[in-house]
Specification:
alpha+beta; 3 helices; four-stranded antiparallel β-sheet
């Protein structure tokens, strides 16, 4: 999905980076949930951060939970010429001057949001594909966590971990009792 902001497109590639047309801007934590334009700045809303971008595609700032952004941003939009964020099903006013997202928006009017659309093929072709579909590190992590087999594999690995913990604990107890 991509968002057309004026004449430009904001999208998130498979490598987790946000692109301004075909120009790489910054990494994006979580999926891209929306974009808005206010004045001379564009805002790309990711699930876990908000990217502030100039109209020429330069990153100005990245706002995340450590700077006050609500957790799990679901959508962004404009209401009464002010940016609002939706998190936990509630719309919050975004005061980027003070980095304050604590005031609940009273949705008296309509929240204007951009609709996610398919990125034009000319821009899509210019965005580089990831180097490798599946890295060795990802494969090893999936094998050790049980994700290779799906949800049942994860539960199995959790059960094995608990059993190994109990086995280690019982060995310590047996050693402690025989020590006396």
């Amino acid at each position: 999905p991509a968002f057309q902001v004026g004449e430009h497109w904001l999208s998130r590639a498979a490598n987790g980076r946000v692109y301004f047309d075909a120009k790489e801007v910054a990494p994006c934590s979580g999926k891209l949930v929306g974009a808005v334009a206010l004045g001379e700045l564009l805002y790309a809303g990711c699930t876990e951060e908000l990217l502030v971008i100039t109209v020429s595609g330069e990153l100005v700032e990245s706002v995340n939970a450590s700077t006050g952004l609500p957790a799990r941003v679901e959508a962004i939009g404009i209401m009464d010429q002010q940016m609002v964020l939706q998190a936990g099903g509630i719309w919050w006013l975004a005061d980027l001057g003070l980095m304050d997202f604590s005031q609940r928006a009273t949705v008296s009017g309509a929240v204007q949001q951009l609709i996610a659309r398919r990125l034009p093929e000319s821009i899509r072709a210019a965005i580089p594909a990831p180097d490798q579909w599946l890295s060795w590190e990802r494969l090893l992590l999936d094998v050790h966590s049980g994700r290779v087999v799906g949800r049942l594999g994860v539960l199995w690995m959790d059960a094995v971990g608990v059993l190994l913990f109990i086995l280690g604990l019982s060995g310590i107890v047996m050693w402690w009792l025989r020590r006396r």
